[in-house]
Design a protein that fits this description.
The chain has 2 domains: about 250 residues, Alpha-Beta Complex (Spore Coat Polysaccharide Biosynthesis Protein SpsA, Chain A), CATH 3.90.550.10; about 30 residues. About 30% of the residues lie in helices and about 25% in strands. It has 11 helices and 13 strands. A hairpin with a 2-residue loop joins β2 and β3. The termini are far apart. The structure holds 1-O-phosphono-alpha-D-glucopyranose. 1-O-phosphono-alpha-D-glucopyranose (G1P) binds next to β11 and α9.
């Protein structure tokens, strides 16, 4: 595919206003995006993935009770001073990765939970006239190259809108945004239509969107109409669907494995998969898993 001259991708929006009801009581007083996989909160995986894709500016769309997410990327002054006094260099290095460039992270509040499309619209002043990425921190991807990095590469090839997609079992189409597809080269697929959470019998394919997007700012104008879709929510998928035919729109079958950390089983699976990738833990994890699975 030929290279298109596109505006560079530097901005990312992270919707983090969700209530996390599926993880109560853990999320009663704590943001669900602070739940750790092994030892790192979900939100930090998302920020690291975005940075690896060249993102420099971040906007978290937050809500009440989410202040820990902001604290997490600030300097923990007392903690760092204590660690320095005690020569705890390794712990200090771990904290280093939680800092963002001064002024590179902003938050806006989604005051009412009207849906993902509404959450993205809340970030409109941050987005301005620029292309932007969206990362849903519940979707965690274990891959060689960052999943958003793979989308950013595709965006440089095709220009326009790009979403990460994967095949799901037919009976699960009602959990996702589903693509109607045109040309398909095995990696890149042309998007002809998008439907939010269709019943299996109505789904145009079993190719689903996962929580990684590169979108053009024009989507905001469509979201601004606040039309209600599936679940009576303002759906991002419906806003995106309006761009088809106006701008390039592609899906990318990314390399990697996605874990739905908004679901208890997916979250547990992510713990195991990420722990097995850690050289200092892998052997112990494999050994204890054996004791459970052999029982
Ligand atoms: C959202 C989107 C959906 C997408 C999914 C990916 O749904 O609306 O199109 O497939 O994220 O995780 P939610 O999980 O918020 O119901």
């Amino acid at each position: 595919m030929s290279q298109k001259s596109s505006k560079p991708l530097r901005k990312a929006v992270l919707p983090v206003a969700g209530l996390g009801t599926r993880f109560l009581p853990a999320t009663k007083a704590m943001a669900k995006e602070m739940l750790p996989v092994v030892d790192k909160p979900l939100i930090q995986y998302a920020i690291e993935e975005a940075r690896a894709a060249g993102i420099e500016q971040f906007c978290m769309v937050t809500g009440r009770g989410k202040t820990a997410l902001v604290e997490h990327f600030d300097i923990a002054f007392e903690l760092e001073a204590t660690l320095r006094e005690r020569n705890r260099h390794e712990a200090l290095a771990v904290l280093e990765a939680t800092r963002v460039e001064p002024g590179s992270m902003v938050t806006v509040r989604q005051q009412v939970p009207l849906g993902l499309g509404h959450a993205i619209w809340c970030a409109r002043a941050f987005i301005g006239d620029d292309p932007f990425a969206i990362l849903l921190p519940d979707d965690l991807v274990l891959s060689e190259q960052s999943c958003l990095g793979q989308l950013a590469d595709a965006y440089r090839e095709t220009g326009g809108n790009v979403v990460a997609v994967t095949e799901v079992p037919r009976e699960h189409t009602n959990r996702y945004g589903i693509l109607d597809i045109g040309l398909d080269d095995g990696r890149l697929v042309e998007v002809k239509g998008l439907v939010e959470k269709p019943a299996p019998e109505d789904a145009p394919s079993n190719l689903s969107i996962i929580g990684r997007y590169v979108l053009m700012p024009e989507v905001i104008g469509h979201l601004a109409r606040m039309e209600r879709g599936a679940g009576n929510e303002v759906q991002l998928t419906d806003g995106m669907a309006k761009l088809i035919g106006q701008q390039p729109f592609h899906g990318v079958r990314y390399e990697g494995k996605r874990f739905d950390c908004g679901d208890k089983i997916g979250f547990l699976e992510a713990q195991i998969a990420f722990a097995l990738k850690r050289p200092e833990m892998a052997e112990a994890v494999r050994a204890f898993l054996k004791t459970y699975t052999d029982a």
